Write a sequence for this structure.
């Protein structure tokens, strides 16, 4: 279980202090797929980076079980919006990189990497370089690299936002299938209401900066979903939840315009 208590974070910008997060409290259950949605600049990525141990909070804490998080650790892996692959390394070496850093012997890490390359649908591309792959294929490599270290928590920062719509939809289905097979705890940042509902067990709605939790919306759509995406997206329940999220987001954006005036 991940417990976030009183989390606040401030940055120094060109025009002075910027409060990115303000007193965020949140509990994420083991094996949960949690999606996080909110206006641009509301601190979603900052929240994710603090959970990853890549940023330090100014106040509050993040605990995994009873351990306070201060730095990156082997229990967490992150998939970035940009593919963040090593351009000089093959698909296989990119996927095996985390295992190499953990001193896993070569034969074992290559076997694990080959298994995961196949798992994400890239069998036959093991010796290709990143620039020889499409964007969707590169993001599959990033996902396989994260899964290779068998994290308890998978942190995903808008991983599909740079992809075309067809590729994005395919990867959403594949990610659902992977999660159904592994049941890794996932925290998934997105700007898409439809994506948040399709993937998540709950949707955390954040306010405009400073980022606070506005509401947490449960998604009572049945699982597994990977083979039922079309019927789920055309269902009344999906439409009702998505519409509720849009009304909340639109209200926050309108308030922001009024405040700016």
């Amino acid at each position: 279980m991940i417990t976030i208590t009183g989390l606040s974070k401030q940055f120094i910008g060109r025009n002075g202090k910027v409060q990115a997060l303000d007193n965020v409290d949140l509990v994420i259950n083991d094996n949960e797929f949690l999606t996080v949605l909110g206006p641009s600049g509301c601190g979603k990525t900052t929240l994710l980076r603090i959970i990853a141990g890549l940023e330090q909070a100014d106040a509050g804490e993040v605990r995994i079980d009873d351990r306070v998080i201060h730095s990156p650790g082997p229990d967490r892996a992150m998939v970035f919006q940009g593919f963040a692959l090593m351009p000089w390394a093959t698909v296989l070496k990119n996927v095996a990189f985390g295992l190499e850093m953990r001193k896993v012997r070569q034969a074992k890490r290559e076997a694990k990497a080959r298994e995961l390359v196949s798992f994400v649908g890239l069998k036959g591309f093991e010796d290709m370089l990143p620039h020889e792959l499409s964007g969707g294929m590169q993001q599959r490599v990033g996902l396989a690299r994260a899964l290779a270290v068998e994290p308890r928590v998978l942190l995903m920062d808008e991983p599909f936002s740079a992809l075309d719509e067809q590729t994005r939809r395919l990867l959403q289905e594949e990610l659902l299938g992977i999660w159904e097979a592994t049941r890794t705890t996932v925290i998934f940042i997105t700007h898409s209401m439809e994506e948040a509902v399709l993937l998540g067990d709950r949707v955390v709605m954040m306010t405009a900066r400073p980022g606070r939790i506005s509401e947490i919306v449960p998604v009572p759509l049945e699982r597994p979903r990977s083979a039922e995406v079309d019927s789920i997206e055309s269902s009344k329940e999906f439409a009702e939840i998505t519409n509720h999220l849009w009304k909340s987001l639109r209200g926050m954006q309108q308030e922001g315009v009024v405040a700016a005036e």
